[in-house]
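User: I'm writing a tutorial on reading structure tokens. Could you give me a worked example: one chain, its sequence, then its tokens, then a sentence or two explaining what the tokens reveal?
Assistant: Sure. Here is the example chain.
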Amino acid sequence: MIPLRRFRALILAVFLAACALHIALDLLPKLGRRAARPSGQPGCSCARPAGEAAAPGRARARGRPGEPPARAPAAGRSGWPNKHTLRILQDFSSDPSSNLTSHSLEKLPPAAPPAEGPGAPTPRDPAHRPLLREPEPRRSVPPPGPSGDGALLARLFEHPLYRVAGPPLTADDVLFTVNGDIRFNPKAAAESPNWPPGGPEDAAFLPTGEAAVDAYPNWLKFHLGINRYELYSRRSPAVEALLCDLGAQKITSVAMKSGGTQLKLIMTFQNYGQALFKPMKQTREQETPPDFFYFSDYERHNAEIAAFHLDRILDFRRVPPVAGRMINMTKEIRDVTRDKKLWRTFFISPANNVCFYGECSYYCSTEHALCGKPDQIEGSLAAFLPDLSLAKRKTWRNPWRRSYHKRKKAEWEVDPDYCEEVKQTSPYDGGQRILDVMDMTIFDFLMGNMDRHHYETFEKFGNETFIIHLDNGRGFGKYSHDELSILVPLQQCCRIRKSTYLRLQLLAKEEYKLSLLMAESLRKDRVAPVLYRPHLEALDRRLRLVLRAVGGCVEKDGLHSVVHDDLGAEHRGSNQR
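And here are its predicted structure tokens:
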């Protein structure tokens, strides 16, 4: 009995010694850095690159203004992370789920070879590979076009076709109405640690204590501007301000979006706005391989950005604002997420880059991990629409939905009279819905988007409202191929709005060339250039194909049967003005 007790005591002593050793290993790097710092100077628990102390801009960004940077330890001087930080990041990949296989049909394409020539960046010493460094400035290649100051876009939006007045709005035509009976307590808001300061205390509130609309965050102004006919007005200042917020607002929390075949993140900002983040998975130049099915292709972040700008140039205004942004995967995703499933998928790649893969139906495995350079990743941020608890949306199956099968074809692909059946079914048997579908068809064809299986509308407005153009990530995949099957709804129904037809004709002219307008509009984005130049050229080519298809319908059925006049006296008055 006594030897057994001694054996148990020995086991307990070994266990306690191991725990003490582990704790000591964790604390030694911190104690070493604290001893190396001058007294009274605050420090950072993370490793810093060697060149950070020499860059005043970085010292100001990561330290306190006016303070000299702290002397880095030996690990920081060599450019490598300290042992404690590296072990924490590498432990993220120890979860058994990190070895899950992917259901994808293909692997990630190989990385492009480094550029050569006098303008290429000088390669760094292989021994100097910092884990966390600031992103290098992105050099924007100017797209084709004579204007770089926004003059062409301004001229387009001053054209009479873009100044047609819409119908007057009633209380039933707006999604939300501002309730003037609600009072807001500025003192309570000022005492809240979560509410960011926004200027002088009295500037945001009226003398009665009511919140002034101008003091609302830009995402709320965007929501309040939604009505029966559009997501936002042509000259809404809230949209431009919201685009700036998407690219600059501080991210306070991150979570994975449930559902979907590919990884998407929900990001919450300091002003309580939210956006959907789609990370960069392919370079601008990479095309969808010809053997890939439309349902197995990657979603492109730059397609989401370009879709918003194209939708605005076409004057549909049915895509929520989208902006590009460089994200620090460590500080703006890993350190602020409370999603343990997402947090556990972070790891360090053999190239010393921070990577993660999350959880989704496809492309969420170590083989398809999203890796930064070393922890900076590019992506798109799409502003959220109002919460479903406040503004319900109805999901509709697209009548021209594809089969999403490798061998089967959809009914519309084999029946040339399919549109006649659709027009006898609600809600396509009356109102403007069939014309909205034709607008969406033209929009998708210009982008090359074959993945429009459903669409949504706001439930409050019933069937007399517009279609929301959501989820455009599979557009702009091919610039060398025009998928004519996307135009089948237009060719079968032979219906188009007069306003859409006239704007397409305008954008086909040299003085309002669509590719030049897109290049000028996209130039303002933070991750410009957003589109590869051949994609811009493909827009002009596809626009001519759309006009040719409408022209064929007019020859067959006559102008009045094909073109629906939605302008009338308002357009004539605008032209006279």
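What the tokens reveal: The longest strand covers residues 376-383. Confidence is low (pLDDT under 50) at residues 39-144, 186-191, 198-210, 570-577.
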